[in-house]
Amino acid sequence: MYLIKGIKHLRCVGVWDMPDGKAEDFDPENAGGYRSPKNEEERRACIAKALDYYNGCGDKTGDFGIEPITAEQAELLGDFSAEASLAAMDFEDWIQSKSRPCRYCKNLFIPNAPGQKVCKRPECQRARKNEKARNYKRRKKSKPSQDPA
Ligand SMILES: [Zn+2]
């Protein structure tokens, strides 16, 4: 997915994940059902769609550009656009104030609890569980042979 740069409001482009998946622009509050392009053809279709939107937009603030974002960031953008008028913040400032990078994939996520360091992606949750199991085994192993000298 991409965030369209150079316009005054938040607008994204992604592939509408249906059998005849097409590149579409969408409001970040409505990010569900869209995904990132999976191949060069889809990527190009997304960029063309983003440029289309930019060209048709009367609200330009600068040159056309796109910024790759993950599905999770697109959802965060939705929260941001709901709060933006109150906060008068940049998305980058806002996201920094709300989120932290995942310990494994480094993507930004908003923690559900203050101590949460891992995002909800299945591969990261799996990595977290594996590490926990490894640490447990290591602790168990190192206990009896702690002082060899
Ligand atoms: Zn992660």
Can you describe this structure?
The chain is an alpha+beta fold and 149 residues long. The protein folds into two domains: 2-98, no CATH class; 111-149, no CATH class. It has helices at residues 40-55, 71-87, 91-98, 122-142; strands spanning 2-7, 12-16, 23-26, 34-35, 60-68, 100-101, 108-109. Strands 1, 2, 3, 4 and 5 form a five-stranded antiparallel β-sheet that branches. A two-stranded antiparallel ribbon has the order 6-7. A hairpin with a 6-residue loop joins strand 2 and strand 3 (23-26). The longest helix is centred in the C-terminal third of the chain and has 21 residues, at 122-142. The radius of gyration is 20 Å and the shape is elongated. The termini are far apart. The mean pLDDT is 84. Bound molecules: zinc ion (ZN).
Overview in brief:
This protein is α+β, with helices and mostly antiparallel strands and 149 residues long. It contains four helices and seven strands; from the N terminus they run ββββαβααββα.
What molecules are bound to this protein?
zinc ion
Mean of all residue-level pLDDT scores: 84
Helix-strand makeup class: alpha+beta
Task: Round the Cα radius of gyration to an integer and report it.
Answer: 20 Å
- Distance N to C terminus: 58 Å
The beta-strand count equals 7
Largest sheet: 5 strands, antiparallel
Number of DSSP helical runs: 4
The shape is elongated
The string of secondary-structure elements, in order, is EEEEHEHHEEH
